[in-house]
Amino acid sequence: MKGNIFYKAAYGLSKKSTLVEIISSLLVILFIYTGLNKMLDYHTFKFQLGRSPFVQPIAGFVAAILPTGELLVAFALIFKQTRLLGLFASLFLMALFTGYIYIMLHYSYDLPCSCGGVLAALSWKDHLIFNSGFTLLAMIGVILQSNINQNNINPTGFTRSKTTASS
Q1: Model confidence over 24-58: pLDDT tens digits?
Q2: Intra-chain end-to-end CA distance of the chain, in Å
Q3: By the 8 A CB rule, do 35 and 68 touch?
Q4: Is the dihedral of CA 125, 127, 132, 133 positive or negative?
Q5: What is the pLDDT of residues 93-144, one digit of tens each?
């Protein structure tokens, strides 16, 4: 049975689905942690954003929108029907955060940290590495989930019927 081409195709897609589940779970944990942390310590988060030379003019808006956005992205990642959208949103946010950190490291005279909890203990260079890793994970998730969706294969690895039986 293991030599069967259909078995190999289903097994390969099952591994892809498992990897997407792991990536999505890591992103859910990250976005729930950071979103809730920003909400729970909103005043500090908003104050630190206001100190950033690049975000200062829109700090109030970003502080109000970002934590909710992170939680919405986490919510989208949980459900298979919205997972690809959540992965694209994760990729966008992580690329945005990574770019922001890169710009701050290279062009800012002051480096205020608006991260909370455990992430606040990271240096800016460590943040860049951490965020780059999660950006890469999100990108891999987008590619794998797109491939799964394109092949019209469900997460168990079995082909879905293209026609529906009518009663």
Answers
A1: 999 999 999 999 999 999 999 999 888 888 888 99
A2: 34
A3: yes
A4: positive
A5: 999 999 999 998 888 777 777 676 777 788 889 999 999 999 999 999 999 9
Q: Identify whether the C-beta of residue 45 lies closer than 8 Å to the C-beta of residue 114.
A: yes
Helices (H), 41-123: 42-51, 59-78, 83-107
Name the nearest CA neighbour of 110 among 62, 60, 63, 53. Answer: 53
Residue pair 141/24 in contact (Cβ under 8 Å)? The answer is: yes
Locus of tokens 């009663």: 167
The residues facing 153 across adjacent strands are 159
Give the pLDDT of residue 167. 46
Return the domain boundaries, the chain. Answer: 8-150
Gap between the Cα atoms of 79 and 59, Å rounded: 31
CA distance 148 to 20: 10
Residue 45 tokens read as 């988060």
CB atoms within 10 A of CB 63: 21
